[in-house]
Amino acid sequence: MIYLNGDFMSIEEARIPVLDRGFIFGDGVYEVIPVYSRRPFRLTEHLRRLQHSLDSIRITNPHTDAEWGDLLERLIAANEGDDQYLYLHITRGVAKRDHAFPKGVAPTVFIMSNPLLTPPKELLATGVAAITASDNRWLRCDIKAISLLPNVLLRQMAVDVGAVETVLLREGFMTEGAASNIFVAKDGVLLAPPKNHLMLPGITYDVVLELAAAHDIPYEVREISEYEVRTAQELLLTSSTKEIMPITRLDGKPVGDGSPGRMFAQLYQLYQNYKVTVMRGNTPNS
Asked: Is it the case that residue 33 has pLDDT exceeding 80?
């Protein structure tokens, strides 16, 4: 079951006009929200990021936070599985093809649910491979825009060589992954790139830094050089659907000793414990 412009229906029934600006221009934004035990994870933060994206491309939010919460609750209930992930897709709407914003057009709102399949234990035990590439995307990567062709091409570069992710470098510094945030661990310190227009502000990124602060794990938020990436003792990949994963090979070479490290093990366990706390409703960020 999906939601489209006021109605719940099967995905096979869903239809969107070919003149929708999301189809014609990629004129829209999206959000991905993990659901554990039928509870949206960090819903407040996800809706805040959605609002930032909508504001940045000048689309009026079609719903209040309470209305979004009701829609998502109904969609979760209409689909099978305690663990799901919700995909929200909002475009500027349907209008005659013209680059300028149309007037008096209602946004298209589409929401679907898919099973949430977190990384298997076998993969967490060995880690994954990644490659590096020049970050050739536009300069507003803080907007979660549906026009993702650069990310698609960069991610496919990794897939083509049997890797999981592409770590992006811009002018000698790391920004993020093609579909993730990236952390560096070196000399017992967790390094995170700063939030700015060159990266998407990840919700899992925030959780990792909150956990580090709460458990006295040394960390720094600052620009991370390509040299520091290539000489890292550990590299960590984070996203809403992959949670936290260790990168153990980069461009065909081992990261550290080539196996998941102590920083990953500690943060992964802290994250799993935090999830349980959220699912039990013992935190305001549930």
From this structure: yes
